[in-house]
Amino acid sequence: MIRVRIKFTKHGPIKYLGHLDVMRYFQKAIRRAHLDVKYSEGYHPHQLLGFAQPLGVGITSDGEYLDMTLNTLPGGGLQGVLQALNDVMHEGIEVIKIMELTDTKDKAMTQVAAAAYTVRFREGHAPASGWEEALVNFCTADTINIMKRSKKGEKETDIKPMIHEVLIMDDTICLILTSGNEGGLRPELLLHAFLQSRGLEATPATLIVHRLDTYQEGVDEEGRYFEPLIPDGSKFYREDPLILYAKGS
Amino acid sequence: MNERLALSDEILLSVSKPERYIGGEVNSVVKDKDDVKVRFAFCFPDVYEIGMSHIGIQILYGLFNEMEDVWCERVYSPWTDLDLVMREKNIPLFTLESQDPVREFDFLGFTLQYELCYTNILQVLDLSGIPLKASDRTWDDPVVLGGGPCTYNPEPVTDFFDIFYIGEGETQYRNLFDTYIRAREEGVSREEFLKRCAQIPGLYVPSLYEVTYNDDFTIHAVTPVSADVPAVIEKELCTDLSNTYYPTKPVVPFIQVVQDRVVLEIMRGCIRGCRFCQAGQLYRPTRERDPKVLMQQAMELLDSTGHEEISLSSLSSSDYTGLKELVDFLIDECNKRHVNISLPSLRIDAFALDIMSKIQDIKKTSLTFAPEAGSQRMRDVINKGLTEEDILHGATEAFKGGWQKVKLYFMLGLPFETDEDILGIGDIANKIAAAYFEAVPKEERKSGSVDINVSTSFFVPKPFTPFQWAPMDVPEAFAEKAGLCKHGIRSQLNQKRIHYQWHETDQSMLEGVFARGDRRLNAVVLKAYENGCIYDAWSETYRHDIWMKTFEECGIDPTFYTTRVREDDEIFPWDHIDCGVSREFLLREWKNAQRSAVTPNCRERCSACGAGRYSCGCCPTNSNGDGGVCHS
Asked: What integer pLDDT is reported at residue B628 of this predicted model?
């Protein structure tokens, strides 16, 4: 038995697939790829899959993760798994990395700590010029209380501790926000709250959101950091949040 | 996948389930439009999840796309939210694959699976920018085609179609496409093209027939406008199912649809001859597909789709002679693949219970019986060859095997029905509950108890059945009968174990109007659409008040089509269509029903229904088949 984690991307019209449909899509793709995946017991066996973090409808991504358990590896080992999946994959979804999980405690769903995004205003939806400074001001406040829905219902929450980076370059806002099972901050929620504070109305189409990657948390001698769920050597150390408008860059 | 979508992100993010409109599903077919001579838009005029569950479209989609010079794409009714947006912003309806406007296509083919989709046909034409009436169309518009069960009486919608294809699609479409390609190359008129189509077997061009009425609005005659147009259109059918095309790479939807599984079509037709059932007559003779062919198809289909469930499709799986061989193979193969098997329309007997115990969780699944009527006399009237003894025996065996849930299906409003027949529904449900307590000793009744769900629908007489002569009940009578049925159930000893539900009556009434309707109804369909009716098959969108107002506006009494008593020799609006069984046979069966006389099934004895002329399937005229032999 071997547990593996894959990293995949989601581009183009397939961004309209909701999370449940992406799960169903992978279940079928794994069957088409004839991978020897492990199933649960019982009359209606299901594949033992674990997705890192649901992606909202309409959002593209370069950093989605999925854990699965295989009884045996195909020829070609881990790369063979990646190849078999990509052979039956749909345009718009591509498996780009794979790693073996050695620690049984490693579960994508519980390891998720943060995610990085780029956000732009859809054409015709950008607020009047000067919004960049206003957004920096909005995010530098000591507390940012907004109405936020959780499992227990809607209540006022301070989202400031969930903001790790807000970097505005040209028309693009780069964000690193807390994410995960225990509650996180979706980029739409932050930006909609900002627009609302300016007296502007937001619709589901106001923003173009793209997820760059999904992170887990780690600690080394330099401190606490975020790194991709399949580590690639890059680390983002958690100090005070970086909130910056890189004017004219 | 097509990166260029017909709808903007703004629209897709504002409507429910945008995945319905993006296309690009696994196994969907994309060609270069410049490489083909015929572009065919295939429409199921209902929402995506319903339309994608229809095996007929998957068959023809695959068949057409195997043809090098044809590209077949799909289109469904936009849901009401997108419908409004498209009207407001003047966005033309598009196909899923190319996202191109439907109006640019050579053909727009509709499958007509139920009568309550008729206003959705107009919705699709309207949103496409195609003139609603065939007589207003030019070569700038697609040829609008209809197929499917409702085209056996397409008279209520003849104004909106250029051509109807009567019968099974596998046989004549190539002929139609060749006729089209030739006509376009020769530059002939659309009228000339349609005249040529009328010469193709199975094709009905309604504009080439004239209908005259008697003073009481019954049909006087249906006459071809010229001598070279056939007076009768005979249905098409495949005589050898094992060597007929079947798609092995069906489109796999992203979203969950109604039929989200591999479907193996094991058989067409039904040997039983239930007198209320239209499918049982239309698809005669019963033809089986070789189990060896099906085994091969099953594996290819599971490989190409990745589906986690496989289902057998037929009108009566228990009558398929290769069932044991096929199911044994599937159980073995599906266990290896962790694939579920679903077996609908099985008669509950020892064999069925044995299979079901292997493939289902007994505690969670229900046994399903469809006695259709509450008394033996009534079951004889409808020729439903299921006795109370069969049901109680099957149920007892099942209870001993651990099942606890039972579903029972009945119809109310059947011809010659009396109060006793309706009260009999409660009786039989009670006897099944009693059988449980008798079969399962108290100490073995582990969790819960027996659970019986009774469901009744209202009988709608359909053309080409022995009951095409039968008057249908008015909605008030239906409501009364449902009340009586409820009372019958509530007065039973075990009534606490029995749940009862019944279907809406208003929609059944409308279905009844169109099922046996004539050409005068075209005006009503058009007017109802203009008055705002769409998605009539959905109770949440069905507007009975508007329909009734529309009938009044058009000066048409709906009860003319439903409750009227029809004489034996009345000419029906659908008499120029030949569905394979003869009117003489149907009338004989109507008389047998009046005498509660049972007619044996096709394998017990041939009843000379007329389908023997095809010399295939179970008919004694078929020298290679299982015709006329008693298998029981």
From this structure: 39
Task: Kindly determine whether residue B1 and residue A91, on different chains, have CB atoms separated by under 8 Å.
Answer: yes
Q: Is A66 found in the same domain as A134?
A: no
Q: Which domain holds residue A137?
A: 110-246
Cα-trace Rg, chain B = 25
- Residue A40 burial (C-beta neighbours within 10 Å; 0-12, 13-18, 19+): exposed
Kindly determine whether residue B19 and residue A30, on different chains, have CB atoms separated by under 8 Å: no
What is the secondary structure of B470-510 as a DSSP string? PPPPPHHHHHHHHHHHHHHHHTSTTGGGEEEEE--SHHHHH
* Domains along chain B with CATH numbers: 9-234 (3.40.50.280), 239-346+600-632 (3.30.750.210)
Mark yes or no for CB contact A32/B304 under 8 Å: yes
Q: Is the dihedral of CA B229, B230, B233, B234 positive or negative?
A: negative
Torsion, Cα B624 B625 B628 B629, to 10 degrees, reads 100
Q: Å from A91 to nearest chain B CA? A: 6
- Looking at the complex, report in whole angstroms how far the Cα of residue A18 sits from the nearest Cα belonging to chain B: 9
**Total of domains in chain A:** 2
> What φ, ψ does residue A74 adopt, rounded to 5°?
-75, 175
Write out pLDDT tens, residues B354-399.
Answer: 888 888 777 677 889 999 999 999 999 999 988 999 999 999 999 9
How far apart are the CA of A17 and the nearest CA of chain B, in angstroms?
Answer: 6
Do A24 and B254 lie within an 8 Å CB cutoff? yes
As a whole number of angstroms, the distance between CA B590 and CA B593 comes to 5
Q: What is the interface pTM, i.e. ipTM, of the complex?
A: 0.93
Residue type, B361: D
Residues from chain A contacting residue B18 (CB–CB below 8 Å): 16, 57-58
Is 0.90 surpassed by the pTM of this model?
yes
The three-state (H, E, C) secondary structure of chain A, written as one string: CEEEEEEEEECHHHHHCCHHHHHHHHHHHHHHCCCCECECCCCCCCECEEECCCCCCCCEEEEEEEEEEECCCCCCHHHHHHHHHHHHCCCCEEEEEEEEECCCCCCHHHHEEEEEEEEEECCCCCCCCCHHHHHHHHHHCCCCEEEEEECCEEEEEECHHHEEEEEEECCEEEEEEECCCCCCCCHHHHHHHHHHHCCCCCCCCCEEEEEEEEEEEEEECCEEEEEECCCCCCCEECCCCEEEEECCC
Instruction: Give the residue from chain B lying closest to A26, CA to CA.
Output: B306
How far is the C-alpha of A85 from the C-alpha of A74, rounded, in Å?
11
Rounded to the nearest angstrom, the minimum Cα separation between A135 and chain B is 24
pLDDT at position B631:
36
Q: Quick check: B13 and A57 CB within 8 A?
A: yes
CB spacing of B13 vs A14 below 8 angstroms: no
CATH number for the domain that contains residue A78: 3.30.70.580
Nearest CA in chain B to A91: B1
Residues in chain A predicted with pLDDT less than 70, given as ranges, are 43, 248-249
Which candidate, B561, B558, B454, places its Cα nearest to that of B515? Answer: B561
Residue B625: predicted pLDDT: 59
Tell which residue, B462, B451, B454, has the closest CA to residue B511: B462
Boundary residue ending a domain (A82, A106, A130): A106
- A24 to chain B: nearest residue by CA? B254
Q: Are residues A237 and A124 in the same domain?
A: yes
d(CA A5, CA A95): 10
Please say if the pLDDT value at position B296 is more than 70.
Answer: yes
Q: Between B522-530 and B118-128, two packed helices, what is the crossing angle to 10 degrees?
A: 60
Same domain, A53 and A122: no
**Residue at which a domain ends, from A47, A75, A106:** A106
Contact B361 A44 (CB under 8 A): yes
